[in-house]
C-alpha cells in the first residue's frame, strides 16, 4: 500500500503516465477548504487501491505547478483527472467523494481484469494490495459493490461445518482452488482449511445477504470449483464420499428482514429465478454471471439466494465466492443489529 505521489514537474507526471495503466491525479492548493476536506478520503483510496504499474495515485499543487494545471484546463479546485494508458478518461470537479469513489473502484476493477488476463483467460482479476479478485469481467458502467455486504448479518442454512463459513463466500482473495493446490483450502494453524462452502444434508443452500447501503444490483457472480475427474487429489475425503457439484437453480428474493426457511421459500414467489447451464460457467475461473432483471433490483437492502438444486445427481453443492455487481446508494441506518432466531 502507498499514498499519492507528489508531482513536482511535468516530466515526472509524463513518466508516471507511461509507467502505470491507470493514474488518478488530484489538483489542489493548501488554502482551499474543499481540497482539505477530501484529502483524507483521497489518501485512504490511494492506500487501499494503489498497485505498482496498475493503479497509481498522484497529487499536484496547482499553485506550485501552474503549467500542469493549465495544460489540463484545471480551473476550479479540487479537481481530479483519471488517466488510462496515458489518456484522459474522466474529470471530476469539486469534493464529490461518492463520484470519485465509484469512478476509482470501477477503474481499479478494470485494471485487475486486465492484469489477470494471462492467468485466467481475461475473465478474472487478482487481488493485490488494493482491489478484490473477480471471477468475471464487470458490465460497463457498474462496479463490484460486495464491500457493501453487512457481514455481521450474514446467515447460511444447511452448510457443512467442516468447510468454510458464510464469510468465506465474500473473501476478497482468489479461491485457493485456482492455484496449485486445486481443491485444497488455505492453511490455518498448520491444518488445511477449505476456503469454500458445501451443503450438508442435501444439495440446497439458503443464503441471506444484508447490505450496509441501498443498492442497485445488476449482476451476481457465483464462483464454484468442484473437483473434476482430472484432479490429482481427492481433498483427503474417503473414496466413497460424494463429490460436490455446482449450483443449478437459484431463486433470488429481495428486501427480506431475515433469512427464509426452506419450506417458506418454496411458498414465496422469487423476485427472479435463474437456471444455470454448464455453458454458463467460465472454464478458467469457474464463475457464472447471474444477470438480473435490473428494473426489479433498483432499491435493494438485502438478498436471499436459495440454491434449490445442483448439477447432476449429487446431494452436495459447492460455492467458493460470491460477488455483487451494481451501484451503491445511500447508507442505511443499521441501528442495533439483532439476530433473528427461531425460538419462541
Automatic annotation (TrEMBL):
A single Gene Ontology CC term: cytoplasm
Region (Disordered): 175-196, 224-248
Superkingdom of the organism of origin: Eukaryota
Alphabetical UniProt keywords: Disulfide bond
Domain PITH as annotated: residue spans: 134-344
Biased composition (Acidic residues): 230-242
PROSITE patterns in the cross-refs: PITH
Pfam families attached to this UniProt entry: PITH, Thioredoxin
Key word Disulfide bond present: yes
Matches recorded under PANTHER family: THIOREDOXIN-LIKE PROTEIN 1
UniProt record similarity statement: Belongs to the thioredoxin family.
Protein name per its UniProtKB record: DUF1000-domain-containing protein
Amino acid at each position: 500500500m502507498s499514498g499519492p505521489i507528489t508531482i513536482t514537474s511535468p516530466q515526472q507526471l509524463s513518466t508516471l503516465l507511461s509507467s502505470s495503466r491507470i493514474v488518478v491525479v488530484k489538483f489542489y492548493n493548501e488554502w482551499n477548504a474543499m481540497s482539505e476536506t477530501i484529502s483524507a478520503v483521497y489518501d485512504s483510496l490511494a492506500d487501499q487501491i494503489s498497485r505498482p504499474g496498475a493503479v497509481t495515485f498522484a497529487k499536484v499543487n496547482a499553485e506550485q505547478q501552474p503549467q500542469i494545471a493549465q495544460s489540463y484546463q484545471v480551473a476550479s479546485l479540487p479537481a481530479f483527472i483519471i488517466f488510462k494508458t496515458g489518456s484522459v478518461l474522466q474529470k471530476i470537479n469539486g469534493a464529490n467523494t461518492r463520484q470519485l469513489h465509484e469512478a476509482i473502484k470501477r477503474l481499479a476493477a478494470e485494471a485487475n481484469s486486465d492484469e489477470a488476463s494471462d492467468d485466467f483467460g481475461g475473465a478474472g482479476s487478482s487481488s493485490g494490495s488494493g482491489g478484490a479478485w473477480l471471477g468475471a469481467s464487470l458490465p460497463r458502467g457498474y462496479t463490484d459493490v460486495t464491500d457493501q455486504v453487512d457481514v455481521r448479518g450474514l446467515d447460511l442454512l444447511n452448510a457443512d461445518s467442516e468447510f468454510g463459513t458464510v464469510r468465506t463466500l465474500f473473501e476478497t482473495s482468489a479461491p485457493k482452488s485456482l492455484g496449485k493446490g486445486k481443491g485444497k483450502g488455505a492453511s490455518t494453524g498448520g491444518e488445511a482449511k477449505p476456503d469454500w462452502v458445501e451443503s450438508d444434508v442435501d444439495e440446497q443452500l439458503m443464503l441471506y445477504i444484508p447490505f450496509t447501503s441501498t443498492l442497485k444490483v445488476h449482476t451476481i457472480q457465483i464462483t464454484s470449483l468442484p473437483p473434476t475427474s482430472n484432479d490429482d487429489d481427492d481433498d483427503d475425503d474417503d473414496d466413497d464420499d460424494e463429490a460436490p457439484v455446482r449450483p443449478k437453480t437459484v431463486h433470488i428474493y429481495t428486501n427480506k428482514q431475515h433469512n427464509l426457511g426452506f419450506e417458506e421459500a418454496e411458498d414465496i414467489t422469487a423476485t427472479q429465478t435463474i437456471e444455470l447451464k454448464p455453458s454458463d460457467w467460465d472454464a478458467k475461473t469457474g464463475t457464472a454471471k447471474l444477470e438480473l432483471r435490473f428494473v426489479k433490483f433498483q432499491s435493494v437492502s438485502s438478498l436471499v439466494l436459495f440454491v434449490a438444486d445442483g448439477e447432476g445427481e449429487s446431494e452436495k453443492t459447492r460455492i467458493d465466492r460470491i460477488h455483487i455487481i451494481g451501484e451503491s446508494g445511500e447508507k442505511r441506518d443499521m441501528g442495533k443489529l439483532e439476530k433473528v432466531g427461531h425460538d419462541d
